[in-house]
Structures are given as structure tokens and as C-alpha cells.
Automatic annotation (TrEMBL):
PANTHER family reported in the protein's UniProt record: ISOCHORISMATASE HYDROLASE, PEROXYUREIDOACRYLATE/UREIDOACRYLATE AMIDOHYDROLASE-RELATED
Domain Isochorismatase-like as annotated: residue spans: 4-179
Keywords on record: Hydrolase
Amino-acid biosynthesis in keyword set: no
Organism: Streptomyces violascens
Protein name per the record: Isochorismatase
Length: 187
């Protein structure tokens, strides 16, 4: 599996407030994060952050325009902070992106290259947003991919099921948090 890192993407206060379905998402994600720490796997948090006034948002970009209208992702606003239930620990890395993929407008590629990371484990909100965009981008970069379906969440459960069940298995290993934590646990 190479040198791995767990990416925790867009699990920010406002996003969790919109998407959390009461299924125990944050405790499952916390389990994945704790498992990564115990196994010595780096945890990289990826957050969406737009400058006040949104100079990086084109009116041609439908998704970002709707995000701006909803008041989401403005740097410095409390809702843009990583949710406190899964907050970074000392040594964790936080990367800020400007678009859908964790790589777009961020220094994630540099962080991975410097550390020799060639395998990513993906978790985040939304499955049809950051997870999908990052899977596509990372696949094009020839990175080994694992998606934790129960550590991903989407506003549309049917879209989540389709992506996890049909699309992602073409490019990534799809395993539950418990399966992954068990596989990486120190012996």
C-alpha cells in the first residue's frame, strides 16, 4: 500500500451542520483518525477556504457561486473551522484548498511529495463533492486510493450509495472504517 496518509476533507462546522444525518458519522471518523495516529499514518486535514470578498470565485462556477450565496467557507468565519469533535492534533497537517479537489489551489501535492506519500485514504463531506473530485484528481496522479465509505457523507444518500458502490471501486479500494483500522493496527 506504500506510504499512506489519511485525508479528512471539508469536515468543517457549517458543512457538518448541513450534512450530519445522525448516524454517528463524527465518532466513526474519529475512529479512523485515532486508528491512523496509532499506526503512525499521517493525518492531513483539507479545508475549503475562500478569501473575504471571494476574489477566487468566478460567476461561471455554479457550485462555488452557490456556496458563496449560502455564506459557506469564508476564511476566518467560525463555520469554516474544522469540527471540534475531530480537531487536528499536534503533528497533523492542515491544507487549505480553493476548489472541489483537495489538490486544487492547495499545496497538498507538495506535502505528499516531501513525505514520499503515494497512497491516500479518503474521508469527508461531501461524497459527491470533495471526495469525488479528489478521487478523480488523485487517480490521474497515479496514487493508490482507499475510500472509507462510512467516513464519507453526502446530502443525497442515493448519490453517496452510487458513488461508493459503482464508481469509486473502479479506482479505489472501498473499505469500512473498522476494516481499515483493523488492517493498519500495530501487531
Amino acid at each position: 500500500m506504500g506510504n499512506s496518509a489519511l485525508l479528512v476533507m471539508d469536515v468543517q462546522r457549517d458543512v457538518v451542520d448541513l450534512a450530519d444525518d445522525g448516524s454517528g458519522y463524527l465518532p466513526r471518523l474519529r475512529r479512523a483518525i485515532d486508528g491512523a495516529h496509532a499506526a503512525g499514518i499521517p493525518v492531513i486535514y483539507v479545508v475549503m477556504g475562500l478569501r473575504p470578498g471571494d476574489p477566487e470565485v468566478s460567476p461561471r462556477n455554479r457550485v462555488l457561486t452557490s456556496v458563496v450565496r449560502a455564506g459557506l467557507f469564508t476564511l476566518g468565519e467560525p463555520g469554516t473551522e474544522i469540527h471540534p469533535d475531530i480537531a487536528p492534533q499536534q503533528g497533523d497537517i492542515v491544507v487549505t484548498k480553493r476548489r472541489g479537489s483537495a489538490f486544487s489551489g492547495s499545496d497538498l501535492d507538495l506535502v505528499l511529495r516531501v513525505r514520499g506519500i503515494d497512497s491516500l485514504v479518503l474521508a469527508g463531506i461531501a461524497t459527491s463533492g470533495v471526495v469525488l473530485h479528489t478521487v478523480c484528481h488523485a487517480n490521474d496522479l497515479d496514487l493508490h486510493l482507499t475510500v472509507l465509505p462510512d467516513a464519507c457523507l453526502d446530502l443525497d444518500p442515493e448519490v453517496h450509495r452510487f458513488l461508493i458502490g459503482k464508481l469509486f471501486p473502479q479506482w479505489a479500494d472501498v473499505v469500512t472504517v473498522e476494516e481499515w483500522v483493523k488492517a493498519i493496527a500495530p501487531q
